[in-house]
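Supplementary Methods, section 5.1.

A reviewer requested that the exact input to the structure prediction be made available. We therefore reproduce it here, unchanged from the version used in the analyses.
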Amino acid sequence: MSSPDSFTPVSMPRRDSALLIVLMVLGVLALLFFVSLALLSMIVLPRMVKAGNKAKEVTLKANVLTIRNAVEQFYLDTGAYPASLEDLTRAKTDPPKTGNGKAPIPAGSYHGPYLTAPGGIGGSRLPINPYVKPTDPNYGKVSTHWHYQNGVVHPTVPTVGKTSDGTPYTAL
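The structure derived from this sequence is encoded token-by-token as follows.
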């Protein structure tokens, strides 16, 4: 008989210890999986956000160039800058009568529309500014997207910061 002070190890059946080992291995693998997932998201998510911003910049620059080219073509054809950006989308059969500063447009000199892509701001065929949020209550107004005066076009937003190549948004 053994004394109450003596310790007798009790052996666990092999099946129970194997189950415990399998559970510990699965726990370690789950921990490694979640740590790897966290590290991967720390690398991938910032790149995805950066790619989204880059896409907006490229679209903004392309849209500014498209509008500026249309304004210049209008000027070359008519000898006057358009009174508004909406004049760039008018049908050839419905030419504007005056340009910027009320300069008369000679009959037959208007060869528009100069912007013909479907869609645009409020269906006007004027390209959108990708930085203007569709939830903006004035989203359908051209002046919310573009500032236009005397033949010069600038995006209305963003007004601070720089593009990824270092160009200030205000210089676009």
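The two ends are 95 Å apart (CA to CA). These observations are discussed further in the main text.
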